């Protein structure tokens, strides 16, 4: 029971943290893709979409090679900052963040594209600079799409398996989330324990969707 | 206002916008059919689009200078813009929309007080409403108020009436006239409707395919189009100021120059005195002097031919009937009537063809 509580809390915490981490860069990139023309834009789009189209396990392998003890980023992080990523809870956050990033960027891009540019133009003529225009006009008008993107990213993080298992492994009490737990228990033959985890997953997913619906409704005018 | 555009050039869609102009009037009309480049020009003036070349100055201040790479961002220009649909911010209430703009007004140190602006535009009761709940006419009035409280130095009205039906248009026109008179702001008024030009503007500039074809006093442009293209776009019309003398039922008698004309008065508000009389050139019939006996035309105006201008198949006949009147005749008709400069004729105009427009 204690263990169940821990896994649930850990999963929620990881999903929340990874969503918060991808939110600022995801919204910024979504805006850049929707509103600006820049060199390498098409390349960036493809690159961001990669985790959606290649198998999650493959994404996990790429992350493992990059952040592993002998990977370029892994070496840098360990020697300069003294941080070890692989096979720790940080790896779980990294994997879920990378996997949910494209979903958020796509939602954000569409959300920004739907804000009429004329409104932003008029805001500028009324004396608002680009930042004030963004925060008082663009962002509020895009909020529904951004919120939906955030919930999508959160849900993806809740259920991430393939990339996580590659880079974080299955270390009880350290890297096991609900989805890893389900697989783990089934492997050990503890089907009942797996079913309990399954039930918790369903409840969490249901809660996330309900929360987003409520948020969307509340802001409707 | 002195808004000057020197060598302004921008490729926009099918054509290249190339403008050299100096707008100096109180209300300048920018006239042209859709796709003529009006909105592009408005965006360049507002700073929302950057021309490839050219210099734009307002009251001597350089806003854009293509060659020197100067481009003042829109928020530092002090140029208010009211587009066709008003572009109210849907996430803010009417009051929120006004507050959004007010900040610039306060920063500019010159404020059209919100209460005053709201009173002039009759929107005091709308402040707590949301933009989606407003009618088209209300939306435009709020958009106008929002632009005003930002204390602009110049107001750009980009077809503000185009999205409204005839009744709403008629209802909002007086508000535009009030804004013009009350705030003394220079205005550039974009439209493709001659009636709006006549009712609001002092000068007008005719734009087609990205080029300025003619620029001058409104009456002048309508009466004497500089080219066949202008005549085709705006139509040829006599536009003169007149004073209402009185009426009989729906008919009104108007003093124009040394003459009197009779027109339909059903569009005029009670108490109107000063009007613009507009008569389309093709609605004017000419007959030889002394040959009229009885006719259905309420106006029989004796006059002298002042000029004959050939325009393809038609001839523009400029008359002096106590006021300048223009008629459009076929070449054949001119030959048969034996019209010569200095010759006497009688112009016949039916009362419904004499349009009276209130002009405060």
Overall description:
The complex is a heterodimer of chains A (221) and B (360). Chain A contains ten helices and no strands. In chain A, helix 1 runs antiparallel to helix 7, helix 3 runs parallel beside helix 8 and helix 5 packs across helix 7. The longest helix of chain A is centred in the N-terminal third of the chain and has 34 residues. The radius of gyration of chain A is 20 Å and the shape is globular. With 360 residues, chain B is an alpha+beta fold. Chain B has two domains: 233 residues, Rossmann fold (3-Layer(aba) Sandwich), CATH 3.40.50.300; 121 residues, Beta Barrel (OB fold (Dihydrolipoamide Acetyltransferase, E2P)), CATH 2.40.50. Chain B is built from nine helices and 21 strands. In chain B, the strands form four sheets. A six-stranded mixed beta sheet of chain B has the order 7-8-9-3-10-11, with helices on both faces. In chain B, strands 2-1-4-5-6 form a five-stranded antiparallel beta sheet, covered by helices on one side. In chain B, helix 4 packs parallel to helix 5. The mean pLDDT of chain B is 87. The chains are: A mainly alpha (221), B alpha+beta (360). Chains A and B meet through helix 6 and helix 7 of A and strand 7 and helix 2 of B.
